[in-house]
Design goal:
about 550 residues, TIM Barrel, Rossmann fold, 2 domains, 8-stranded parallel beta sheet, 5-stranded mixed beta sheet, binds zinc ion
């Protein structure tokens, strides 16, 4: 197998892709090399940027440098001794409407020049196209994909199967399903560039999931034309492993400088908010005063450093199991990204199925955008599907102390001791549960397990989080048959809604219930009185 997954988080992975010219660590961003205008020499990318792989356009090479590239091979032609991927010319097709080569010629050319990773001549759907046109692009691409396996002659090239369909998600799904039946080693989602340029990240989320869910997880997935540091984390989290970027150079030519919060014009900057080798040694004024060609090169270098730094942050986040936290941070850099993050609510099961079950590290809960992260969703599912009451008749619902594990505390021991003293054997029928955001109900038996053992919640809670937590507690009370229920109230945002729901459900189910403050509950005398009362009620029940 050419691809090996080493670490994973959400649907994102850190992996290794083996090619004839070396191994690429993924997620990876392959800078697009334009053989006609190139601000950073491929050799510099290898030596200074430590890049293992680049991508270039086979059609441009074929039309302008054919003999030369065939004679030298694409690696020597570019002066790059790493991995060279070639794109087919589909982008030219999208922009100029037609290209002057047959699909077979494009395949054979890529084999002859020695591409490590090669792409069939697909027909990009683009956007703002009719459904009929979109269907045609899917059909033609699939037909060409099938033909590839009749005439390709080399076994050491990794072939990319592009998925089309554009914004017609059912077509994207169909395209992915049918392409996945063919023996490609890498799959790619075609032409979301227009979505990127218009910040339509929510549509991008839909498109990626529609395609990705039909492609085997053991294979890498490339997102064409999407190399902006803003959205890389989102795409990785949904299962994209490879990216190509022409943006670093295109933006640079237009005098645009990438930042963590988007792209800005260099003349609008008073300071350079970056410490890459370019920015560490210059000021915006100095960059502006450079001759145009020099400025182009300097900005391209900075932009590429920005993209690569983000790729490294993403890899590290996957390794540490905090890709979700990283997404939340990125989502605050543009409203469209926050909208896209919220869209993940639709795909919570998709993400949950692909996320690790335990992690080395605790979880940070910031606000309601974290309610749909896999850990929260998974816990809720399991609380209701797998957790069973055994012989428990009395529920004591306590606010979870923020600082420590309750089941190891002195208070918990005292509670258990007094319960045994007063209730004897019936003490076993008491069930202690904690309540907290975002998990809702935490039966004491589960308190030491992941992710309940280690999480930090930001306070005060927002309205949606309060609703979410109270809904879980309500459902828990409805679905579990206790005879007696005690609620110890907390002073936080949950207090009022929880009291209301608690009383309402207990009344409806005919459960003996009582609400108490912390002061009314804790203390030896209070507990004794409470357990005696419980004893009475159990006898009557
Ligand atoms: Zn910089």
């Amino acid at each position: 197998m050419a691809f090996e997954v080493r670490e994973h988080d959400l649907a994102g992975r850190v992996g290794r892709l083996k090619t004839r010219s070396g191994i690429i660590e993924t997620p990876a961003l392959l800078p697009v090399i334009n053989p006609r205008v190139q601000p950073i020499a491929p050799r510099e990318m290898r030596e200074k940027f430590k890049l293992k792989a680049v991508i270039t356009n086979a059609y441009i090479l074929m039309k302008n440098f054919s003999e030369h590239v065939i004679k030298e091979g694409v690696h020597r032609f570019l002066d790059f001794d790493g991995v060279v991927m070639t794109d087919s010319g589909a982008y030219q097709l999208l922009v100029y409407g037609e290209i002057d080569a047959t699909p077979r010629e494009v395949v054979e050319f890529q084999e002859r020049i020695g591409s490590d990773i090669a792409t069939i001549l697909d027909v990009p759907t683009g956007w703002n196209v009719s459904r009929r046109r979109a269907e045609e692009t899917v059909e033609t691409t699939i037909k060409r994909a099938e033909e590839l396996f009749q005439y390709k002659s080399r076994e050491d090239v990794l072939w990319v199967g592009p998925i089309q369909g554009g914004l017609y998600l059912d077509l994207v799904e169909e395209s992915a399903r049918r392409m996945s039946a063919l023996p490609f080693q890498i799959y790619a989602l075609g032409s979301p560039t227009a979505l990127m340029e218009n910040y339509l990240f929510t549509d991008l989320v839909d498109m990626i999931v529609s395609a990705r869910r039909h492609i085997p997880e053991s294979l890498p997935f490339h997102l064409f034309g999407a190399g902006h540091p803003l959205m890389l984390a989102l795409a990785v989290a949904l299962g994209c492993d490879l990216f190509d970027s022409a943006a670093y150079a295109i933006f640079a030519r237009e005098g645009r400088y990438m930042t963590d919060w988007g792209t800005v014009r260099i003349e609008d900057l008073r300071w350079l908010p970056c410490s890459c080798p370019v920015c560490a040694e210059s000021t915006p004024r100095e960059l502006l005063e450079l001759p145009e060609d020099e400025r182009f090169k300097a900005l391209a270098r900075h932009n590429l450093y920005m993209c690569l730094a983000e790729i490294k942050r993403i890899r590290q986040s996957i390794r540490e199991g905090r890709l979700w936290e990283h997404l939340e941070v990125k989502a605050r850099s543009h409203p469209s990204l926050l909208s896209a993050l919220k869209r993940l609510k639709r795909y919570v099961r998709y993400l949950e199925e692909r996320s690790p079950v335990t992690k080395r590290r605790g979880l940070f809960f910031f606000d309601s955008s974290g309610l749909f992260r896999p850990e929260v969703y998974r816990y809720k599912e399991r609380l209701f599907e797998r957790f069973r009451l055994e012989g428990k008749k009395v529920l004591i619902l306590l606010p979870k102390p923020s600082s420590k594990q309750f089941f190891t505390s002195h208070e918990y021991r005292e509670l258990k001791n007094l319960a045994s003293k007063v209730l004897g054997g019936e003490a076993e029928s008491i069930h202690i549960c904690l309540y907290d955001a975002p998990f809702g109900v935490i039966p004491i038996e589960l308190e030491g397990t992941y992710p309940l053992a280690q999480y930090v919640t930001a306070k005060p809670l927002d309205r949606e989080t309060v609703d979410f937590v109270v809904d879980i507690i309500e459902r828990y009370l409805r679905e579990n048959d206790y005879k007696v229920a005690l609620l110890v109230e907390s002073d936080g945002e949950l207090k009022e809604r929880l009291a209301e729901v608690f009383e309402e459900v207990c009344k409806r189910k005919g459960v003996f219930y009582e609400r108490l403050t912390n002061d009314e509950f804790w203390g030896r005398e209070n507990l004794k009185r409470i357990f005696k009362a419980i004893n009475e009620k159990l006898k009557r029940a």
